[in-house]
Amino acid sequence: MAIPAPPSPPLQMWQLRLALESDVPELEMLIPLSVRSLQTPCYTQAQMEAALGPVFGVDRQLIRDGTYFVAESVGVIVGCGGWSRRSSLYGGDGHRAGEDPLLDPHRDAARVRAFFVHPAWARRGIGRAIMVACEQAIIAAGFQKVDIVATLAGEPLYAAFSYAVVEHYEIPMRDGLSLPVVRMTRSLESA
Ligand SMILES: CC(C)(COP(=O)(O)OP(=O)(O)OC[C@H]1O[C@@H](n2cnc3c(N)ncnc32)[C@H](O)[C@@H]1OP(=O)(O)O)[C@@H](O)C(=O)NCCC(=O)NCCS
């Protein structure tokens, strides 16, 4: 009697690629969707609305640097995130005055930046896949350390990659509001 074949693994329904400037309008729709759904356990509606733009937004500099990834499923962007060789720790470029200064890989920590997954695609490994791609690129660029200013919603993802909490603090926003975040770090020397 023939031995039944084991069930085949589920097909990965999305693929990673580098983001393009032409993706910006789609990213600008994805980010509020992700924030308003996946951050509700952590922040009030007022905090999320105040953070959209100044804290949560597209940083075109990352796209120009070739350090921002999108996860795409049949032509639709369902997740994004990246890393940076520049100084800013968070925020869209629309709220930045002037050039974001370059970091020194021998002295400074690279940044992990701006991860947003579509709520219908959460917990399917997209964040994890983008982190793996970021860390590979960060190591290839010669950095030995990574810093992240994480939302409280993002903290478990980075904790799963052995990032350690450095400090909790609050980002001041409009109308006297503030956003509690957590600064996390990891050395990649032994990675
Ligand atoms: C944070 C975020 C990017 C994670 O994306 P994701 O694709 O759902 O994450 P993954 O499926 O790759 O999860 C990888 C691991 O991270 C951890 N993790 C992710 N989301 C988690 C959650 N809500 N609760 C607990 N652990 C979580 C788990 O260890 C998970 O592994 P597992 O599913 O095998 O248990 C997503 O929740 C999101 O877009 N949040 C809103 C925007 C935001 O706050 N971004 C962070 C900016 S710093």
Structure in words:
The chain is α+β, with helices and mostly antiparallel strands and about 190 residues long. The protein has a domain at about 15-90 and about 100-145: Aminopeptidase (3-Layer(aba) Sandwich). The protein is built from five helices and seven strands; from the N terminus they run βαααβββαβαββ. It has helices at about 25-40, 45-50, 60-65, 125-140, 155-160; strands at about 15-20, 70-75, 75-85, 110-115, 145-150, 165-170, 180-185. The chain has a seven-stranded mixed sheet. The longest helix is centred in the first third of the chain and has 15 residues, at about 25-40. It is globular and about 70 Å long. The N and C termini lie far apart (about 45 Å). The mean pLDDT is about 95. The structure holds coenzyme A (COA). Coenzyme A binds near residues 115 and 160. Coenzyme A binds near residues 116, 127, 154 and 160.
